[in-house]
Amino acid sequence: MLPTKSSLSALDSREDDEHLAGRPSVVTRFSEETPLRRRSREFLLRSIHPSAQGIDSTDAGQIDLGYVFERARAHKVGPLCANRLLTLQTLPPTVRVSAEAELEVGRLRSRKSAFTCSAVSRVLERAGVRFAVLKGPAVATYYPRPELRPYSDLDVLVEPRSLRRASEALESLGYQSAAKPPATHSFDFLPQSHALTSVDLHIRLRSAREVGVETSELLEGFVVEGSLGGLRVPVLTPAANLLHVLLHAVSVGPFGFYLLHLADAAWIIDRDPRIDPTEVESIAVQWGVERLFGLSHSLLRRYFGFGLSGASPRKRSLVFDATSSPRVLIDQELFARRRFSFPQELLLHSAWDFSFKRPSKRAAELAKRQLDHFLRAR
To answer: How far apart are CA 156 and CA 305, in angstroms?
Structure first.
């Protein structure tokens, strides 16, 4: 039996629901490689591809549909995958019920998110705060329907000097700050009403700590008015939005990776003819993230088979190619035959950051955690 709308609404209000939110655990794992697993991963990627081709019942009989749907949910592309799975006539009843429920959750979450975006935009405008809506709402418009790309919180970019006014504006809607020190780039606000989603106020782009552009410059030179479900709000320009999405896909590390962000980039490129590859590359140079853009774009081509036509080819990075394989990034934390040991996890994080020629902060955090554990054990 499908869940009722009330039960789904209650479930949707739980922002810490790891299964639906797709948060990977700190200790990651991946499964033993088999032909079935490889075919299932390929099917998963086809199911979220902008092209509707390549999904048929013949394929479904040769893959693990349970694995496909579980991985889709963990990587935050559950509704998109469910929408494609429901076109299969031979879909097992249990998977069909789960897919229908996932779409219903997407519809409820999409309506809730749209209401939040409208309410937050109005109070920020009244407070005279210059802002731009990031990620979820700015990307969902590229999908066939908003519920296929729901989001659990609203990301808003504001200038550091406007943070107090923005905070007070959110408090007028009943939001309370949930920022935990040391908050340096973003501040979470939790709603007191289940009708609203949480809000994340960014004072700089979270997805790329190397971006060498002040927030005031971003809001001045890379923001346009966009239409999000009939609501006119400021968003990043199409080229800047795509670059931001690509940076977000690879900035967190191998164990914070979600297929969602690569899928976002694929759908943007496929659906927006206004995007000029030369402009995207130019912005990457202005932001000082050429290497990060090159590697993230190559990852998009590797997983989805296409990218920006005419974009400059990047130099090969064997380390990045090894640490970004589908087996590592898609299968993380699932069906454990073994857990990554501390040295393995440290090595993967270090190798990932080495690919971008940046210090591995995550590796340093892991090393400190392990040292603290060792000292407590003595």
So the answer is: 31
Find the mean pLDDT for residues 66-89: 90
User: Helix (H, G, I), strand (E, B), or coil: what is residue 199?
Assistant: strand
Q: Give the strands of the sheet with 186-190, arranged side by side.
A: 176-177, 186-190, 198-202, 153-158, 131-134, 231-236, 223-228
pLDDT tier for residue 353 given thresholds of 50, 70 and 90: low
Helix, strand, coil abundance in the chain, percent, nearest 5: 55, 10, 35
Tokens 């749907």 locate to: 69
Query: Tokens representing 189?
Result: 């606000």
Average pLDDT, the chain: 79
277-308 confidence digits (pLDDT tens):
999 999 999 998 888 898 899 999 999 999 99
pLDDT per residue over 234-290, tens digit each?
999 999 999 999 998 887 777 678 899 999 999 999 999 989 999 999 999 999 888
Q: Encoding tokens for residue 165?
A: 């006014």
Q: CA 209 to CA 247: how far, in whole Å?
A: 10
| pTM, 2 dp | 0.82
Domain map (residue ranges) of the chain: 114-236
How many angstroms separate the CA atoms of 285 and 280, rounded?
9
Q: CATH topology for 114-236?
A: Beta Polymerase; domain 2 (3.30.460)
- Cα distance between residue 273 and residue 277, in whole Å: 11
- Give the whole-angstrom CA distance, residue 249 versus residue 272: 19
What is the token pair recorded at 275?
Answer: 């995007």
Q: How many CA atoms lie within 13 A of 139 on its CB side?
A: 27
From the number of C-beta atoms within 10 Å of its C-beta (0-12, 13-18, 19+), residue 287 rates as buried
- Cα angle, residue 12 at apex, residues 10 and 13 outer, rounded to 5°: 65
